[in-house]
Amino acid sequence: MPVSVANSRIIYEALKSINVGLISALPETWLVHLTSMADEDPDMILVRLNKEEEGVGISAGAHFAGRKSVMMMQNHGFLTSINGIVSLSQLYKIPLLMMISYRGEMGERDPWQTQGGISTEPVLQALGIPYNKLSNPDTVLKELAAAQTLAESSQRPVALLLTRDLMWEE
Amino acid sequence: MQRLEALNTIYPLLKDHIVVTNMGAVAVELYSLGHQPNFFYLEHSMGLASSVGLGLALCLPGQQVTVLDGDASVLMNLGTLSTLARYHPANLIHLIFDNESLLSVGGFPSATATGTDLAGVAKSSGVEHVAAADTLEDLDQAFTAAVDREALSVLVSKVEAVGPASFAMDIGLLENRIQFGRFLQGISSKS
């Protein structure tokens, strides 16, 4: 599977550097290594979800408990979480850091991913969610730290899109 | 059994719990019994009260977390019961008031009115300790047992489909959120 282990490790180490202590996730091809790294880390609380919207609630609980979290999902998971994002994170002003694998962008071969790819950025924009695309492993830590800082200072959801350039090797 | 009576029965125990409610009648009725800074009323995001409770319970293992929920909210996020079962935090009680109705929006029957058994769903999802408690006496016993058990418990209580005259609450969403956040900050910094 040509998902980049090296870049997944860089992202995971960056999450540790910014003190993320809880990850909620749903299995997704691009996130397999990240999910395994979280599973093997005794200091990380990994919550495997049935549906991504649960993660919005779990991250809110973690925030109230003083634990930094990240919600890790495919862009279709983001699309299915919108009510929670709007009526919990945004309504109640609760920071939410989302790491979203950006399927369906340039280079996508799976036809079933393509519509979600086209909709992802317009939906983020419509919701007023600040986002950044991560494609360079050298700047992952800086960009993750910046996204977490903005989520906490603005008390809002912030998204990072994990691109094919970062996650895929072939 | 009326939900307000049921809440009144367990209310004395809730002062030591971190409490998350779903939207609508449960929130209003708990508030009417006396607000406390450890109560968070989730006034929207139907279905996510139990997810918020799970996040709190996993991150604050030394605190008792109680989620007060409703049948329609749980039906909207049925997968939550298997996620609760999977992580089964010992400090979480999920009490579901089942009035078989979407009462707050006009009283339309929910799927528990046509045969869905939420206690059965919880059990089949893998929750070990599930109890149906449909009288005040049973609820009192089941809730006390759940607190003493120190294991994830899901309780389902059938209640009448009656609610408060008004859903207005004299506390703002953000006021409640900030107060609850500050209360928990105090707990987190001590633990």
What does this structure look like?
The complex is a heterodimer of chains A (170) and B (191). By secondary structure, chain A is an alpha/beta fold. Chain A has a single domain, classed as Rossmann fold (3-Layer(aba) Sandwich), CATH 3.40.50. In chain A, strand 5, helix 7 and strand 6 form a beta-alpha-beta unit. In chain A, helix 1 crosses helix 2. The N and C termini of chain B lie far apart (38 Å). Chain B has eight helices and eight strands. Chain B is an alpha/beta fold and 191 residues long. The chains are: A alpha/beta (170), B alpha/beta (191). At the A-B interface, strand 2, helix 3 and helix 5 of A face helix 3, helix 5 and helix 8 of B.
Features:
heterodimer, A: 170 residues, alpha/beta, Rossmann fold, 6-stranded parallel β-sheet, 6 strands, globular, B: 191 residues, two-stranded antiparallel sheet, 8 helices, 8 strands, 45% helix, 18% strand
Summarize the structure.
With 170 residues, chain A is of the alpha/beta class. Helix content of chain A is 48%, strand content 19%. In chain B, a hairpin with a 5-residue loop joins strand 5 and strand 6 (108-109).
How is this fold's topology laid out?
The complex is a heterodimer of chains A (170) and B (191).
Chain A: H1 5-17, E1 20-25, H2 32-40, E2 45-48, H3 53-64, E3 68-74, H4 75-80, H5 82-90, E4 96-101, H6 114-126, E5 131-134, H7 140-154, E6 157-162, H8 164-167
Parallel strand pairs in A: 1-2, 1-3, 3-4, 4-6, 5-6
Helix pairs in contact in A: 1-2, 1-7, 3-5
Chain B: H1 3-14, E1 18-21, H2 25-33, E2 39-41, H3 49-59, E3 65-70, H4 71-76, H5 79-87, E4 92-98, E5 101-102, E6 108-109, H6 118-124, E7 129-132, H7 136-149, E8 153-158, H8 173-190
Parallel strand pairs in B: 1-2, 1-3, 3-4, 4-8, 7-8
Antiparallel strand pairs in B: 5-6
